[in-house]
Design goal:
alpha/beta; 21% strand; nine-stranded mixed beta sheet; elongated
Length: 285
C-alpha cells in the first residue's frame, strides 16, 4: 500500500509539470506575466520632446549671443555745440572695436569712458548702458557748457563750466561772444586739462552776471599772480576791482556795485583799485 501510494503521487506530479510546460509553451510571449511590457511612444510625443530640447537650445544660444557687445553703439549727446553727434559715434565705435573682450560680464566701461574723455575734453560725464537683450551699447554723453574764453601764454582756449580747457577758441566760432579771462598767474595751461576749478568758474560767472544785470560794462577779467584773486576792470572807469574767488560772489559783487554807485554820486573815484575781498568792508586807493 505504501509503494503504491508513492507511485501514484509521482505520476500525478509528472502530469502536473507536463501540463504547466504545455501551458507556458503554448502561451504567447507578450502575454507572459514574467515579461515587462514597454509602451510604444507615438510620433507626436517624440516630436514634442525634440521640440522642447530645441527650444532650450535656442534659449541658451540667444542668452550667450546677447552677452556679446557689438562695436556699433548708440550715442546720445546733450549738446552738439563743439562737434556733431556722429563724431562721438564714430570714435566710440573705433574704441569698442579695439577692446578684445566685449562680453557684458567683463566689459570695461571705465576704460571706454576714460578714452572718450581724453579725445573729447568737452565731455563732462559719460554713462554706458548695456541692454539686457540687445547687443548695442547705449552711451550717454554730457557735454560741458562753454563759459569763458581763457587766454594763457598767448594761447586762447574755450573754458568749460567744469574749468577744463575743452577747445581752441579758433575752432569754435560761437565762443567769440564769451567773456575773456586773462590768466597772468604764470600757470602753463594745456588743452584738455583743468585750468581752474568748477567753483571758481561759477564765482566768476556770478560776478559777470551781476555786472550785466546792473549794466556795468566789463572790459577785462584778470587772474593775477596773487592766489585766489580776480581783478575786474570796467570800460568806463580807470580803477580795477579786486575779488576773492574763494568767497561769496553775490556779497562781493553787491559791495562793488554799492561802492561804485557811492563814488559816482560823490564824483570821486579811486585812483588805483577798489578791494571788496573782505566781507562787509571795502578798501580803495
Amino acid at each position: 500500500m505504501h509503494e503504491g501510494g508513492n507511485g501514484r503521487t509521482r505520476i500525478k506530479a509528472r502530469a502536473q509539470r507536463s501540463s504547466m510546460t504545455k501551458y507556458y509553451r503554448g502561451t504567447p510571449k507578450d502575454s507572459s506575466p514574467f515579461v515587462s511590457k514597454v509602451p510604444k511612444i507615438s510620433w507626436h510625443k517624440r516630436f514634442a520632446q525634440y521640440f522642447d530640447w530645441l527650444f532650450v537650445l535656442v534659449i541658451v544660444f540667444c542668452f550667450v549671443y546677447s552677452l556679446i557687445v557689438k562695436p556699433d553703439p548708440k550715442v546720445i549727446v546733450s549738446s552738439s555745440i563743439y562737434r556733431p553727434a556722429s563724431a562721438y559715434q564714430s570714435a566710440a565705435a573705433v574704441k569698442l572695436k579695439s577692446i578684445k573682450d566685449r562680453t557684458k560680464l567683463s566689459f570695461d566701461e571705465t576704460s571706454l569712458v576714460s578714452d572718450l574723455k581724453k579725445e573729447f575734453p568737452e565731455i563732462s560725464s559719460a554713462d554706458v548702458e548695456l541692454p539686457i537683450i540687445g547687443q548695442k551699447p547705449i552711451i550717454h554723453l554730457t557735454i560741458a557748457t562753454p563759459k569763458f574764453l581763457y587766454r594763457n601764454q598767448s594761447q586762447t582756449y574755450v573754458l568749460s563750466s567744469d574749468g577744463v580747457l575743452v577747445a581752441n577758441a579758433a575752432s569754435l566760432s560761437s565762443a567769440k561772444s564769451l567773456p575773456l579771462i586773462d590768466d597772468q598767474s604764470g600757470y602753463r595751461a594745456k588743452l584738455g586739462q583743468a585750468a581752474v576749478s568748477a567753483s571758481e568758474v561759477d564765482f566768476i560767472a556770478q560776478v559777470v552776471a551781476q555786472c550785466q544785470r546792473a549794466k556795468v560794462p566789463i572790459k577785462s577779467l584778470v587772474l593775477p599772480a596773487a592766489a585766489q584773486e580776480l581783478d575786474l576792470k570796467t570800460s568806463d572807469k580807470n580803477y580795477l576791482v579786486k575779488f576773492y574767488i574763494g568767497g561769496n560772489a553775490t556779497l562781493q559783487s553787491g559791495q562793488f556795485l554799492a561802492a561804485r554807485h557811492q563814488f559816482a554820486a560823490e564824483h570821486q573815484d579811486p585812483a588805483q583799485y577798489l578791494d571788496v575781498r573782505v566781507a562787509g568792508k571795502v578798501f580803495y586807493k
